[in-house]
């Protein structure tokens, strides 16, 4: 509100010096009448706001103005030709480019690396969600990968770790549903930690292992501070194991849920009967909001993909966690 007033004042103060030139600008005759005023210099700037001044500098301002109105871009051919030829009059071509900004010939693929994760959505290459896989080769056609084979030694160590955590689980038979869906050595987890109910959710050992350590070493300690005396007694699961594509889409990459690597937390159950529901907390300044944000941030230490509520449209009411394997221990946490 204050700005308008300031502007008005500045304008009021300015009038004196600019009075004469102000009248002239609109008229095309001005140059003849008042060659002295540098007004022409000021005019060229508004039209071509682009940074490409080199072209305009070499030529008179008037010439630059004329070409800009032309909507016809030189496209690739014009831009490519001028470069090799040392002709001194290449300026017209560059002037046309400013409109498009960057030559269209440039590779738009730069986006691929990692733009913004869009959650589990993988259909479009640019989406981030359960981010694009480390495999750059498979872009469009998503060939269902084979079910991940558990390494005997790794599995043995993992199961021993679950025993140490006090996880209540049982091993079950291999799941293989085709289309890449399945788990080589699944386990059903009744309690990921003693007294923390997970409803018998099916997953790979390493997923349960990440869940257990996250809850024990980060989530419960955070709750001890946020709500002293409260204990987590369970997780209200969202999606656990499910043979589907990311975000339940009809096309795209297979979800980590279909491989036993993912677990969605819809809410934490507390010993007093309360639930802490996962939801967007961007504007939540409560202690409960602080707790969720702490738990979510801490999850990135245990999981390679963390998609918090609000990270995209597909994750409004749950926290997506998965242990997708990527090169270099790369992780995406949003
Ligand atoms: Zn999920």
Can you describe what's shown?
Residues 83-95 have a biased composition (Pro residues). 31% of the residues lie in helices and 16% in strands. It is of the alpha+beta class and 334 residues long. The chain has 2 domains: 16-97, no CATH class; 152-333, no CATH class. The strands form 3 sheets. Strands 6, 7, 8, 9, 10 and 11 form a 6-stranded mixed β-sheet that branches. It has a 3-stranded antiparallel β-sheet with strand order 1-4-5. Strands 2-3 form a two-stranded antiparallel sheet. A hairpin with a 2-residue loop joins strand 4 (187-193) and strand 5 (196-203). The longest helix is centred in the middle third of the chain and has 22 residues, at 205-226. The structure holds zinc ion (ZN). Zinc ion (ZN) binds next to strand 7. Residues 120, 239, 257, 262, 264, 320 line the site of zinc ion (ZN).
């Amino acid at each position: 509100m204050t700005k308008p007033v300031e502007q008005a004042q500045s304008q009021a103060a300015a009038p004196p010096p600019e009075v004469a030139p102000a009248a002239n600008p609109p008229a095309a005759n001005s140059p003849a009448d008042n060659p002295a005023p540098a007004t022409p210099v000021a005019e060229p700037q508004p039209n071509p706001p682009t940074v490409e001044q080199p072209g305009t500098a070499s030529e008179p301002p008037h010439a630059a103005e004329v070409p800009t109105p032309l909507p016809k871009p030189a496209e690739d051919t014009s831009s490519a030709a001028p470069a090799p030829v040392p002709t001194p009059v290449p300026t017209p071509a560059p002037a046309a480019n400013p409109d498009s900004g960057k030559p269209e010939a440039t590779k738009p693929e730069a986006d691929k690396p990692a733009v913004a994760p869009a959650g589990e959505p993988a259909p479009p290459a640019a989406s981030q969600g359960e981010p694009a896989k480390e495999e750059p080769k498979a872009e469009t056609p998503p060939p269902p990968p084979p079910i991940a084979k558990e390494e005997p030694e790794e599995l043995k160590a993992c199961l021993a770790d679950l025993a140490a955590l006090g996880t209540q689980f049982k091993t079950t038979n291999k799941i293989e549903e085709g289309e890449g869906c399945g788990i080589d050595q699944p386990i059903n987890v009744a309690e990921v930690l003693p007294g923390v109910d997970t409803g018998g959710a099916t997953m790979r050992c390493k997923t349960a292992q990440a869940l257990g350590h996250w809850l024990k070493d980060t989530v419960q300690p955070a709750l001890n501070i946020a709500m002293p005396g409260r204990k987590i007694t369970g997780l209200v699961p969202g999606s656990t194991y499910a043979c589907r594509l990311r975000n339940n889409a009809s096309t795209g990459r297979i979800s980590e849920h279909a491989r036993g690597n993912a677990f969605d937390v819809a809410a934490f159950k507390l010993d007093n009967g309360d639930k802490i529901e996962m939801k967007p907390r961007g504007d939540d300044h409560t202690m409960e909001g602080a707790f969720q944000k702490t738990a979510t941030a801490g999850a990135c230490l245990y999981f390679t993909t963390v998609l918090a509520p609000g990270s995209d449209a597909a994750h409004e009411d749950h926290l997506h966690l998965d242990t997708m394997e990527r090169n270099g221990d790369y992780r995406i946490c949003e």
